[in-house]
Specification:
5-stranded parallel beta sheet, globular, nucleotide binding (chains A, B, C, D), 388 residues, Oxidoreductase (chains A, B, C, D), homotetramer, 9-stranded mixed beta sheet, alpha/beta, Rossmann fold, 12 helices, Dihydrodipicolinate Reductase, domain 2
Chain lengths: 388, 388, 388, 388
């Protein structure tokens, strides 16, 4: 509880490039802030747009050197790989359908990839991505950023420590409202275009986050699902609301709801897990709190870095309890853990204890999840196995 | 907002009898308090237990006259129907499997029935109950008490007024934790015995409440459902957790979760409804609040009897906003509305505007809902039509 | 946590009269409901208004016999005292300045008095009231109803059990907004008229509640106070907002804020108590919750009748945790505890363990509190001793 | 509500130095993160500790060049002022008593000062600081960081727009619990040593924040105060709890509570402002929410960057509503606004609209506030004028 300093240790910046994330983009800026917060990266190169003029303008706006502002990611991969001080890692923040093509170029040249989710826009690409990542010496980090929040790590640690006993029920949801009507903005446009986002709409954009977070915290493996997908907005070619029932290996059962048409929900990602011995509840919009009920005892409010919070959360907290950390800090935790892994690799040393980040395998599961949702829904909600 | 009095108007007490609700019972006491709050009933007779000694002791404890304390409901129906000042209404608060047999005796003698939910323990009995009720001149009131809360009525009124536009999504849940382990108490015992509770466990006990409330507020009619039921506690012969996907007529979709094994949940009945123009959220444990978001505007907190609350809620509120009313007051609203209907019938006058209560038809829907859940779950979650 | 019945035991109704509380009144109706909830009183007589026509009409509306509907409380006291089945107790629910004159008539005839707060409109009357109550064989119950909430009793019990250690800080507030503008309604009118309400406006109407509740839970005795009172609404002759600093015997310190001009506050009575070992927080608008933090541990949410709640709260709870009880039930607890005391007295038996209610002495303290606030404020917030 | 990008514009980093903030420090690390988030500063020099070995080790840990790691701030000011690429701004994050001596050296050499609060440990130094700042061409920024939260700026904007009407009541509090017992850690030690922190304990450390925030949002000027200060922990030479009544110019009244001994409070800074037409409520631990009640209408929840939020909040938001921003982002807003002012000054251009930060004058008011609290408390809570 006390105010205590946390010593920083400057470990030498990682030279970072970025694909996508030019002007008008949303998630690129988030990645950049996340990379800066703990001073572990320096952005030095970018292929920030597929439109050359925009790529140049965006690079200039970010203060990149003109000769390291590229019009195309392949050209960037080739040249940076040859430079003595070329990038060591690249952040890929394009629409989904470009992820694989871009990542491949960097992976095969040994440049670490930090890739936005979902991994790809379809299963075939996802399988190829896994293959490419395994074949490469480089690391692959997927930014399922909600796993970077201290209190989701706290929750995971409590589950692993057995505080919930055998898990029975998982309730997870991610509700938004911004697509309740047709939107004419860039962020809406590509997300509702199957050729770029993939066959899943809300399932791919946010359902994958919910699915991933539930797995991260519970440690459960999804066996099969039964889904009912809807596109409520007239003419929308992908789902904007999805109801999914889940069967996990070992007997746990769950429900997942994702929606982009639920007025009053901004980014209402909420996870509740119930086991034989206790329950946990967490909500992304109030991320510094974790509710824990040991069965038969009063509910307890565990706060980030506060009384009752453990190692896993403390390791990724920067400020004392009661001083809220948010989305950007959680995102930064993925970046900083990735940095620690990259530096350990660079130095040939052991990865520090506690470092964790979502991998290409998690990404494949996410894409399979979307695929299974679409398949089940098209078969009148028949149960579909996650293993195909 | 201002403190204002609400004039009481003593309308002449209704003579009430009770079947079930002797010592150790839970819901009987609730019915008795509910009947007293607005001074519209007087309990004068009872068949409070199927065990004669207990029936007598319970009657004495409640101050009933010995000659109006019965050992058996049939005997009570027969005699009370003959008395000049015999009961005008009877509350049936036994385990589910007795509801029909008991109600029938009173209905056929023209005594109004106020019956606990679910209507019966199986569809066959429910159909017979409907028939009996329609054949009788007496009223039939089903105590789906959550429809008595001022703010669920407020929500219903807002939906009817079109504030949400066409409804798209219904999320409803009722979670408890008291059956997370095997319980050796009376209240647990009959609720987990299919011969008394019916084929549904959590679905019948609390799932029906959730289903009914969603229908009450949304005005939607359920078309079909897909369910995955579980009995997590070893050896339990009925479900203690259920995941249900809902398809309503007209295109709305929903999810229903009920559970009695979710640690940290006491009586967490929560309803969220989203339409084209707005969203509503209500939780039974904080019943004086209703959250309303007109799409694109800030969320608003409407309080019982407070600014923004309308006629339907004000009609059934007793105290100013900020002075919370609770479960018993909500239950009492069902009783008091029933009383107004009974008195109107007694006097041959029009039923006052705004009077409402759940009917035998609502009860049949509830029993069909449980039946469909069990059926769907046994068919690997195949969609099952509510119309059989 | 489990659903369990609570056996009722009909102890024989107490015959109750009422002074004040006719049509248009607010608190009279609350007293009547409170008296009915646990079936321990029967209203049989009333002097419901000082206006004869209104007294008669109100009595008829409540179903009182015409010969027990009085035009004047003195006449009622005289006649009822002579009746074989005359009233045993009287509820006094008039404006403050009438309390003493009315109570006196009943006390001297041995009729128990249940009196609304504040005790009187000035200290002189309050001292006389104490004298009259001590001289009488009858009981005197003051309806500081917030002490009837299960969770304020839970809090008191926890303080008495030493869970907070030595208390250091008390923060209490009662904020409303209904008098933010001039109001032309009856309830506003007498409350802002010093000849009827007394010299205190918000201090007398709600500040006394806050003061009383803090004392009830903390067990602390107020030594002195320093106050700054305001009348923000133009022309209002009494305070509508008050800031008060508190010094308790033994070294604890506190702050009290009461206001009737704070938009967004309905009946925001909130108490926070901090000791060497822990803290407690309670809010009247969400009365089923009590927050408890043992220093250095996570905050715990104790719910009425739920895990972690003790004897004192369980004794006055009617329904399981998660089924909220509210203002009327809390008020009823005062009535029901009074009934148990009255019956014990009637029967010459010991008062059951746990029975408690605010007394005439608490009432005198409340009136002294208002007097001290007014005095201190008029002396530029000089500290004023509570002992005069 | 929609997800939209916010274009970054790299404006050229400001070369930053730091005084204090070496290993074991708390607030230094916060300043460094805050300076990085929006990529507007680059830390290039430091006198990080008054202990030479620690200064060197800390500089190395942060990756500073050895020749720009100083043992003493004066030496740093002298040398950096001469370097061609010397620091343009310095962050002073030492204990309070060093602020003036350090700031003076930089101010007189034209180096902008970003100084932690409170401004100084006593009024005499504060007055000298004002003089030094006015005499210098450099900017002076005081990190009352809570004014950097988007929703406190939103609140201020709403007050300025007249949505509350004339303000009547201010309730502000800042409660912590970490000093409820004697603490043997560095952060506790200097904060409770009057020779370093000043005469105020909790009043100086957190009371100044509360006072400043209330002034920032309300726009009100404090006229006088009446205080009752306590040191509850045995032997503590400064206050650890304070009760303060406030009188603002123009007739508004307020209460301020600050405490470091209230178990269950982490950094519970909470502001409530009530005017003739409405009320606002904000809490630092949930900083993305602002509650607004127009008198007579339902309470509204305004979210950062969401529906109902205006220009002032949007300007300093980085991510969409529902993705929480926290303490570090709020702190960063002060840094980034300072950067915009510094760059405007560097370029001789107009300061962009909306740029704001606390000034040396705000700092003087804060120190006067502490002084007045101590003075009033020592005079038995006599009202003390803020103008001396």
């Amino acid at each position: 509880m006390a105010i205590q300093g946390k010593d920083e240790k400057h470990t030498g910046s990682i030279r970072l490039g970025m694909v996508g994330g030019g002007n008008d983009a949303f998630i690129g800026g988030v990645h950049r802030i996340a990379s800066r917060i703990d001073d572990k990266y320096r952005l030095v190169a970018g292929a920030l747009s597929s439109t050359p003029e925009k790529a140049q303008a965006s690079g200039a706006a970010l203060g990149l050197a003109p000769d390291r502002t590229y019009d195309d990611f392949k050209q960037m991969a080739i040249r940076e790989a040859r430079l003595k001080d070329g990038i060591e890692a690249v952040a890929i923040v394009t629409p989904n359908h470009v992820h694989y093509a871009a990542a491949r170029e960097f992976l095969k040249r040994g440049i670490h990839v930090i890739c936005d989710k979902p991994l790809t826009s379809n299963v075939a690409d996802a399988v190829k991505m896994v293959k490419a990542a395994k074949a490469s010496d480089a690391l692959f980090i997927l930014t399922h950023n909600y796993t970077g929040y201290p209190m989701t790590r706290q929750a995971r640690e409590m589950v692993q420590d057995g505080l919930l006993g055998k898990i029975r029920v998982v309730q997870v949801e991610y509700a938004q409202d911004w697509l309740a009507e047709h939107q004419d903005i860039k962020q809406a446009e590509w997300r509702t275009d199957p050729s770029r986002s993939g066959a899943g709409g809300s399932t791919g954009d946010i359902g994958t986050h919910a699915f991933n977070l539930a797995a991260f915290v519970s440690g459960l493996e999804l066996e099969s699902l039964s889904a009912d997908l809807q596109a409520f907005v007239h003419g929308r070619p992908v789902d904007d609301n999805a109801h999914v029932m889940l069967r996990y290996k070992g007997g746990a059962r769950g429900m997942l709801w994702c929606s982009q048409v639920a007025p009053g929900n901004e980014n209402n990602l909420r996870l509740r897990i119930y086991g034989e011995k206790g329950g946990l509840e967490w909500a992304q919009e109030d991320p510094n709190y974790l509710w824990y009920t040991p069965f038969g005892e009063p509910k307890r409010l565990i706060t980030r870095n506060g009384a009752g919070a453990g190692e896993a959360a403390g390791r990724v907290s920067r400020v004392p309890p009661g001083h809220p950390e948010g989305y950007l800090e959680g995102f930064a935790n993925i970046y900083s853990d990735a940095a620690e892994a990259i530096i350990a690799k660079r130095n040939g040393t052991a990865r520090p204890e506690g470092v964790m980040y979502p991998t290409v395998d998690d990404g494949l599961l996410g894409v399979r999840f979307v695929d299974a949702c679409v398949k089940s829904s098209s078969r009148d909600s028949k149960w579909v196995s996650m293993t195909g």
